[in-house]
Design a protein that fits this description.
With about 550 residues, the protein is an alpha/beta fold. It is built from 18 helices and 21 strands. The chain has a seven-stranded mixed sheet. A seven-stranded mixed sheet has the order 6-5-4-3-2-15-16.
C-alpha cells in the first residue's frame, strides 16, 4: 500500500527539480555532531546549489553501523531530539535522511523526508540484511509497505540500501506511481562492488522505467570502508551521473520532469584500477580509524620487507609524514639490504625514523631462560622471541607518546598463522589484514607510480621474515601465487578441500593450507582489526569456532 504526501515549494521551477547527493562521512554514535553536519550540508546545498531536495546516506543520523548502540535505552530520546532540531531549522530544501525510528514499540531503519518544519514522509526499510558484515535483524524489524510522496508535482519513492538488492520494494514503489526513486545507502567497499552496484541499478531502473538516485555513505568505520560512488540512473537504465569515489562532497543532479523525472547527464569520472581503489580504501580506513579514535600519530616496525614498506606508505598518505614514526629493529639475521631499504623508504616518505637493535634484549631474555632451556635445541621459540621483543619496543613507544601501533601482516600470512602472537600481531590496527600477498606486490608497484618510495629490490627479492639464517617465506609455504588461489577458494568462497583439489591444485598443498587455516583461528581472534577490502575478510564476515571437530575434506 502506498503512502502519499504533498508539499509545495516556493522555489519550484517549471518542470525542473534539483537534487543534491550529500556523500558525507559521519561518526558513529555522534548524533548531535551528525545532526549539525546534516544541517550545515543542507544550508550549503541551498546557498551554493539552490537545492530542492538534499539526500543523505542510510542511518546518517547515527552513523553506520551503530551496532549495539541501537540497544541503548536513551536512543529513542536522542533521535527524537535530533529530528526535532532538523524540523525546527525549517530550511528551504527538503532533507531526506536515514535514522533509527521507534514505532509501535518496534525499531525500524527509516528514511525520513523533512521539509517545512515537518516530517512529511517516512519509510521503513523492508529488507534488513543479515549476511557477511551485516547484522541488521539483530536490531531492526522489517517494514511492509512502499512510500511514495508528492514533491513539486512529482511522485517520488523511497528505498533503503538492501531494498534495492531484493525484489519487491522498488518494484512496488514504481507500481504505486513513483517516477523517481531515492535510495539511501551504507554500502561498504570491496574489490568489485561498484561494478555490481552499477549492473543492479541499470537493471532495476530499466525494468521499472524509473530514475534512481543512489546515495552512498563515505568513510572508514572500524574494519569497514564506505567508498561513496553515489550515482543516478535514468528510466532507460543509463548511468547519467556518478560522484567520485573516496571523495566527500555535495553532488548536484538536475531533473527535467515533464512526463517523468529524467536526470540531466554529466561527464562521468574516469574508470579507476583495482589497485587504485584498494589503495584509496586502505588510506581512508587508516585515516578514519586513527582520527576518529583520537590518536595523535602512529608507529610501526619497518623491516625492509614489502609488507611494512607498503604499510608505511599508506600511513604517510593517510596521516601526513609528520604523524608517522617508523622503527627498524635489527637483529643478527637482519640483512644489510634490509637496513638500507628501510632507511631509503623512510627518507623518501619523510617520516620519523629510528633504529633500535633488539640484540641486547634478546641476550638478556635468553640468559634468564638458560636454565629451563638447557639441553633443548633452538626452534621457533627463539624466532618468536625476536618478534615479541620488537612488539615490546613498539608498544612502549605507543604508551609513552600516545601513538597507535600499526601492524603489517597481510591476509595470506594471517590465514595460515605465519605470524607471531604477541609479536608482529601486537598492535591496534592492521593496515594489510585483508590484502593477499600477491595483491601486496601489485599495490607496491601502484604506489610507486604516484611517487617512487619503495625500492625495486624490496618488490623483487624473495620475501623473508629474517628470523633465522637464509630464511624465506616459501621454505614453509607454497608459492604465494598458489597459496592465494587456494585461500580465495577456501576462505572467501567456502570450497571444501576436495573441491579445491578438483580445481587442479595439488592435494598435499591443499591439505596443508586448509589445516593451517583451521588450526590458526585462535590466533586471528586475537589479532587487531584491519581494513576489509574483499567480500570476506577475517572479521565480522567469517565466524568459525576455535574449538571444533569439523573434518575439512568434503
Amino acid at each position: 500500500m502506498s503512502v502519499s504526501h504533498r508539499v509545495s515549494a516556493d522555489n519550484q521551477q517549471n518542470g525542473q527539480l534539483r537534487v543534491v547527493m550529500a556523500q558525507l562521512n559521519f561518526l558513529v554514535g555522534d548524533i548531535p555532531g551528525n545532526t549539525e553536519r546534516i544541517l550545515q550540508a543542507t544550508r550549503d546545498a541551498c546557498e551554493q546549489h539552490q537545492a530542492d531536495i538534499v539526500v543523505f546516506p542510510e542511518l546518517c543520523l547515527t552513523g553506520y553501523p551503530p551496532e549495539d548502540l541501537l540497544l541503548r535505552p536513551s536512543l529513542e530520546l536522542r533521535v527524537s531530539e535530533a529530528l526535532q532540531k532538523l524540523q525546527d531549522a525549517r530550511l528551504p530544501a527538503a532533507m531526506v535522511i536515514g535514522a533509527p525510528v521507534h514505532s509501535g514499540g518496534l525499531l525500524f531503519n527509516a528514511a525520513l523526508v523533512i521539509a517545512e518544519g515537518e516530517i512529511l514522509a517516512r519509510y521503513f526499510k523492508r529488507c534488513p540484511p543479515n549476511y557477511q558484515v551485516f547484522d541488521e535483524k539483530r536490531y531492526f524489524n522489517e517494514g511492509h509497505a512502499p512510500t511514495v510522496f508528492e514533491f513539486q508535482g512529482q511522485q517520488i519513492g523511497l528505498t533503503v540500501c538492501e531494498d534495492l538488492w531484493s525484489d519487491g520494494p522498488l518494484e512496488e514503489a514504481a507500481t504505486a506511481g513513483a517516477s523517481l526513486i531515492l535510495n539511501l545507502n551504507a554500502s561498504p567497499f570491496d574489490t568489485d562492488k561498484q561494478a555490481r552496484r552499477k549492473a543492479l541499478l541499470e537493471r532495476k531502473a530499466r525494468e521499472n522505467r524509473v530514475s534512481v538516485v543512489y546515495v552512498n555513505l563515505l568513510g572508514g568505520q572500524d574494519e569497514l570502508v564506505f567508498d561513496g560512488g553515489s550515482m543516478v540512473f535514468d528510466h532507460s537504465g543509463r548511468l547519467a551521473v556518478e560522484a567520485p569515489r573516496f571523495e566527500e562532497g555535495l553532488y548536484v543532479v538536475d531533473f527535467l520532469c515533464e512526463h517523468r523525472c529524467q536526470p540531466v547527464s554529466q561527464a562521468l569520472p574516469a574508470e579507476t584500477s583495482l589497485e587504485a581503489d584498494v589503495y584509496n580504501a586502505l588510506v581512508m580506513g587508516v585515516r578514519d580509524y586513527v582520527n576518529k579514535n583520537g590518536f595523535k600519530s602512529v608507529v610501526l616496525g619497518l623491516s625492509g620487507g614489502i609488507d611494512s614498506a607498503l604499510a608505511v606508505a599508506v600511513a604517510a598518505d593517510a596521516l601526513g609524514k609528520e604523524r608517522v614514526r617508523a622503527v627498524m629493529m635489527p637483529f643478527r639475521y637482519t640483512s644489510g639490504m634490509s637496513l638500507e631499504d628501510a632507511e631509503a623508504e623512510a627518507v623518501a616518505l619523510g617520516v620519523q625514523y629510528d633504529v633500535f637493535s633488539i640484540e641486547p634484549m634478546y641476550e638478556s631474555v635468553m640468559a634468564t631462560l638458560a636454565e629451563p632451556f638447557a639441553g633443548t635445541a633452538p626452534d621457533t621459540t627463539e624466532e618468536n622471541l625476536q618478534a615479541r621483543l620488537r612488539a615490546v619496543l613498539l608498544m612502549s613507544l605507543s604508551n609513552k607518546f600516545g601513538s597507535l601501533v600499526l601492524t603489517t601482516g597481510n591476509k595470506s600470512e594471517l590465514a595460515v598463522g605465519y605470524s607471531t602472537l604477541y609479536g608482529d600481531m601486537a598492535g591496534g590496527f592492521d593496515v594489510l589484514k585483508d590484502v593477499p600477498k600477491t595483491l601486496v606486490f601489485r599495490l607496491a608497484r601502484y604506489r610507486n607510480t604516484l611517487s617512487p618510495v619503495i625500492p625495486e629490490r624490496v618488490i623483487t627479492r624473495p620475501p623473508s621474515a629474517e628470523l633465522a639464517p637464509d630464511q624465506k617465506d616459501e621454505d614453509s609455504l607454497p608459492g604465494y601465487d598458489v597459496l592465494d588461489q587456494i585461500l580465495n577458494l577456501y576462505v572467501e568462497r567456502d570450497y571444501s578441500a576436495d573441491a579445491i583439489v578438483a580445481e587442479g591444485f595439488e592435494r598435499t598443498d591443499v591439505d596443508r593450507v586448509v589445516r593451517l587455516v583451521d588450526i590458526n583461528e585462535y590466533k586471528r581472534r586475537q589479532a587487531p582489526i584491519g581494513v576489509r577490502i574483499t567480500e570476506r575478510g577475517f572479521g565480522k564476515d567469517r565466524r568459525y569456532p576455535i574449538t571444533n571437530g569439523w573434518k575439512s575434506g568434503r
